[in-house]
Amino acid sequence: MIPEGVLAFGLLSLTSLFAITNPLTAAPIYLALTESQTPEHRLRTLRTAILTGAVVLVVFTLLGGAIFQLFGITIDAFRIAGGIIIFGIAIDMLQARRSRVKSTEEEEEEGMEKDEVGITPLGIPMFVGPGAITTVMVLAGDAATLPFVAALFLSIGIVLGILYLVLRASPYLTGLLGQTGVNVLTRIMGLLLAVIAVQFIIDGVRAVALDVLRTAGS
Prior knowledge:
Elements: H1 6-21, H2 23-33, H3 39-71, H4 75-94, H5 105-112, H6 118-127, H7 130-142, H8 146-168, H9 170-217
Helix pairs in contact: 1-7, 1-8, 1-9, 2-8, 2-9, 3-6, 3-7, 3-8, 4-7, 4-9
């Protein structure tokens, strides 16, 4: 029997990570960076990028609590800051514009000149950037028991699997949808991400406010 709240948490994790990685907006840059590669080399680059993203997300999921303790950061403060960062990314997505938080023009131009782009800039920060890292750390802070942690890891695996499949089929998908179709889907995911970001901020502010009220009343 699945413990209460695990399914809802898993759905939140899945939608949050899927919206912030947004495979369709990553597709054009992935195709541009691997334009000169053979199909076999391109596929190897994609696998390297996905593996890099998986390692980064798993490491920050496992070490998130230790990082909070090391720097004396509360999960609520991080939830508020993370919500603000994610909301900024969502605003860019609502305008069908690639967020500079994910990757800068300089990083993308430097990637064009590299033979191997799987680890960087594709794996980091294009597929898994500050927004995705912040998201898994906030979610990991809310995963109090093993079933919740398992749901978060499962969500990471599903999202990276979808990212792999979408990018592998990206030449066909981008041609099928066209730029207008990609922009429409990006705006929809941007709206979803904005709502999730606002909820992160509300949860963080509520917890801080309640703590202040308890302290004042004692």
